Amino acid sequence: MNQSLQERIEQLKVKNATEKMNIFGRLLVDNREMSIWEHDTKTLTWGVRRWRRKALKFSREYIRPLAAEADLHPHDYDYKPILKAAARKGFQTLMLVPPFGSASILPYLRGTAFQMAVIGEEFATECGGLALLLLAHNLGVAPLLLAGSLRNYLLHLLPLYFRSLILGSPECMAFAITEPGAGSDVEDTEGGALARLITTAKHVPEKGGYILNGQKCFISDGAIADKVTVYAKLEDEGIESWTCFLVERGMQGFSVGRSERKMGQRASDASELIFDNVFIPKRNVVGKVRSGWANNRNVLNYSRPVVGAMALGHGRGAFERCLQFCRNTNLGPKRLIEYQDVQLELADMAISLWAARSMIWHSCKQFRCYQSVSASAKVFASDTAFRVCNQAMELMGDQGYLHSNGVERAWRDSRLTQIYEGTNQINRLALFEHQMSTDFCM
Question: How is the chain split into domains, by residue range?
Answer without folding.
Answer: 1-33, 36-170, 174-290, 294-435
